[in-house]
# Entry
Amino acid sequence: MKKLPKVERHIHFEGSLFSLTGKRKVNSFSKFLEVFKEICFKIKSEKDFLFLGDEFFSYLKDENIVYAEFFLSLPVWMKFGFDIFKILENINLSGEKYTNFLKYGIVIDGVRQFHPAYMYKLVFNMEKFKELNVVGFGMGGNENCCNLDRFYDFFQIARRKGFLINVHIGEVVRGRKAFYDLFLVRPDRVGHLLDVNLFNDFIVENNVVVDFLISSNLKTGVVEKGETHPSLYVGEYVNFLINSDDPAIFNTTLTREYEIYLDEGGDPVKLAKNLMREIKNISAFSEDKKRNYLKEIVTFFNLE
Ligand SMILES: [Zn+2]
# Structure
């Protein structure tokens, strides 16, 4: 499974730093936030992002992830008083060494429980962000704190400027309550959305892609032991992708997530088709490259 060319579109840079993540056991969402915070406190300056970037990209390469869109929690680093442009520059300097193996885009991830001003400040630098491989904006953090009302204008502006919108919804808040944020923001991609079947029509009509994060949901306990993960019964017309969220915190890899999906009875054809749909839509790949990856996937899953 490791050899299969993969796409990762819901992974957090800070949550993928194995060297900074101790063996803390995560058994709730609040514990997860605590561990995430602990990791951030271990990063001392913008310079650290050079070697951390190297660690991150070498993990992606090792997993044969050929395209990654990863979240970077810039509001956290703004709070720390770091120069966010230096951080982005350093990550890109590390990334440059891996361009023969993989392409990537950065998604600036907001934190719901922070003051909205952190996100609105970013509006003035959107053009500059594009030059630094930023392709989208997202929102993570604690859904229980608030809905996305206060970020509505921010996402409207980001979309108008050509950025992808990829938000965490239905990770902590379950049931129809999640519809409010989904309907309000109308994201291109949504992470988690555990009660996905309630929103089937909306998702299909609006072409929203659902990013599933199996280990993450099991370890935070939002999907209980014995409860079937929604990735296993998602409606047939819903486009989805299996991702890893925070592999260092949840002690997993993307390869492992694919294996879990299949071990639990997930459909290999669905998995392959969704992966192929992603590959076809990645503008950073030449037609030749796409053809080669698609061929590899077809062979791997014996689809011929
Ligand atoms: Zn996430």
Q: What stands out?
A: The pocket of zinc ion is lined by residues 10, 12, 140, 168, 191, 245 (CB under 6 Å). The chain has one domain: 6-300.
